[in-house]
Amino acid sequence: MSNSPFPSTSPGGSGLQLDEPLIFERHARGRIGASLPKAGVPEVDPASEIPADQLRGEIEGLPSLSEPEVMRHFVRMSQWNYGIDSGPFPLGSCSMKYNPKSSEAIARLRGFAQVHPMLPASFSQGALRLGYELERALSEISGFAACTLQPAAGAQGELCGLLMIRAYHQKQGGPRKKVLIPDSAHGTNAASCTLAGYEVVPIESGRDGVIAPAAVAQALNTHGTSVAALMMTNPNTLGIFERHVKEIGDLVHGKGALLYCDGANLSALLGIARPGDMGYDVMQFNLHKTFATPHGGGGPGCGPVGVSEKLIPFLPVPTIAKREGGFALDFDRPDSIGRLRTFWGNFGMWVRAYALIREWGPEGVKRAGQLAVLNANYLRKLLEPHYYLPFKAESLHEVVFSDKNQKEYGVSALDIAKRLIDHGFHPPTIYFPLVVQGALMMEPTETESPEAVEALAAALVAIAEEAKVDPEAVKAAPTRTRVRRLDEVRAARKPILRWTP
Question: Of all helices (H) and strands (E), which one includes residue 330?
Answer without folding.
Answer: strand 326-330
